[in-house]
Design a protein that fits this description.
about 250 residues; 12 strands; alpha/beta; globular
Length: about 250
């Protein structure tokens, strides 16, 4: 078992944001959350990370209710990479990644050897080992995103949640980030906007509309012309490539 949301409902500022949403991924899979802006993708990630609490339903980690798990213990299992992160502090890439080790430190500090090994492994996985001493403010957008993912990896999570990790990145960096995430030995849940990227990199897609799940399945099962027209209100052609991949081509009116 892994991280699961079971019939969760959540109201924010008097508005029903999530309405009976269930998400029960297989361990080790990559799950893409799709849907228009305001459909509940980011809100679901917040509930599944423990940042907010559902009004009803449950979020469970293995057999335990998420809210019953101490925050430090939770952060050793679940890492969340949000949409926006910046700092005015003069930090190096190594400093940023080292922040991911905070959950592993006790009253008397952590294990320096374990910290060093985890940070080095995270930097290597994110392709940033040669930039460890570089200053945060000098990094490109793609490099910053990789540094944030490296910090999350330094937590040594088994569940990785990412809220629009490709937002504002060019195509090369989008492919780079998602290739990295796809190769990680974790259960990954990603909020995405690009349907073709979701089809390329995700095992399972979950489509939300107005806080409800309207479709769940493989990219080939979910990305149909009728569903895209209904949810996104756009016309498209969905094609299957020679390799069996799903491709969405949008049409002009």
């Amino acid at each position: 078992m892994t991280l699961r949301a079971l019939e969760v409902c959540w109201t924010r500022s008097g508005r029903l944001v999530l309405d009976g949403v269930t998400l029960d991924p297989e361990p080790g899979t990559t799950v893409g959350l799709l849907g228009p802006n305001g459909s509940g993708k980011s809100s679901l990630l917040r509930l599944m990370s423990g940042l907010d609490r559902a009004d009803s339903g449950r979020v469970r980690l293995d057999d335990d209710d998420l809210q019953s798990i101490p925050r430090r213990q939770l952060a050793r299992r679940i890492a969340l990479v949000g949409q926006h992160a910046d700092t005015d502090l003069d930090l190096t890439v190594h400093d940023v990644v080292r922040l991911g080790r905070i959950p592993h430190r006790g009253w008397f500090g952590g294990d320096p050897g374990a910290d060093t090994a985890a940070i080095d492994a995270a930097l290597t996985a994110a392709g940033l080992a040669d930039k460890a001493s570089q200053r945060w403010h000098t990094l490109s957008g793609g490099e910053r995103q990789r540094a944030l993912i490296a910090s999350a990896l330094a937590q040594e999570p088994r569940e990785l949640l990412l809220d629009e990790p490709t937002n504002h990145l060019d195509i090369a960096h989008q492919l780079e980030i998602l290739t990295l995430v796809r190769a990680l030995p974790v259960t990954a849940i990603l909020a995405l906007h690009d349907l073709n990227l979701a089809a390329m990199f995700c095992d399972v897609l979950v489509v939300l509309r107005q806080g409800r799940v309207v479709a769940t399945g493989t990219p080939a099962q979910v990305l149909t012309e009728d569903l895209i027209a209904e949810v996104y209100r756009v016309r498209c052609r969905v094609e299957t490539t020679a390799a069996g991949d799903t491709s969405v081509r949008f049409l002009r009116d």
